[in-house]
Design goal:
With 175 residues, this protein is α+β, with helices and mostly antiparallel strands. It is built from three helices and ten strands; from the N terminus they run βββαβββαβαβββ.
Length: 175
């Protein structure tokens, strides 16, 4: 018996050359954000802004997912780490269900990719378990899809494809 972790991709699939002789099926361009489930955006604002020094970027509602999302950035703007705080607006939203089961805390890690439909097809053909078979609308002018944690080392993984232009919150969404 081996102690090696089970590979998420079980079949040979095409991949992106990411340099230094490495290959990536997903073709990650970078960390997009870290998603944190909360019961109330307002209740956590002081912690992120005053204690961590995060820059508040605004709030956006994503009706399709039943959430309000507050955006924060940490670090210098050219290398900022983005955080998304996710507050449910409906009792049947995925975030509401997550909060009922696990309470507040880390929900997902999101990566930026190009050509999300092609990436999902490559992952599906490689045997990766997907939550979303096709992209759906996300916050910050993106299309998104989630990989099942059982195929991504126990971490709920979101793939985000910017729809062009600036990926900051749309005008009028800042609170």
């Amino acid at each position: 018996m081996t102690n090696e972790p089970r590979a998420a991709v079980t079949k040979r699939v095409s991949c992106y050359n990411v340099g230094e002789g490495r290959c990536s099926v997903i073709g990650v361009k970078g960390l997009n954000h870290i998603g944190i489930a909360v019961r109330s955006l307002d209740a956590h604002r002081d912690y992120y802004e005053r204690l961590l020094g995060a820059r508040f970027e605004g709030v956006e509602e994503v009706p399709e997912q039943g959430v309000r999302v507050a955006f924060y950035a940490l670090g210098p703007p050219e290398h900022a780490v983005r955080l998304e705080l996710l507050e449910p607006v409906r009792d049947d939203s995925p975030i509401a269900v997550f909060l009922q089961k696990r309470g507040e805390g880390l929900h997902h890690v999101a990566y930026t990719v190009d050509d999300l439909p092609a990436r999902l097809e490559a992952l599906r053909s490689g045997g990766v378990r997907l939550i979303d078979a096709a992209p759906r609308p996300g916050a910050h002018h993106t299309r998104i899809a989630f990989l099942h944690p059982k195929s991504s080392a126990g971490v709920l993984t979101e793939l985000c494809e910017p729809l062009g232009g600036d990926v900051a919150p749309p005008a009028g969404t800042r609170s």
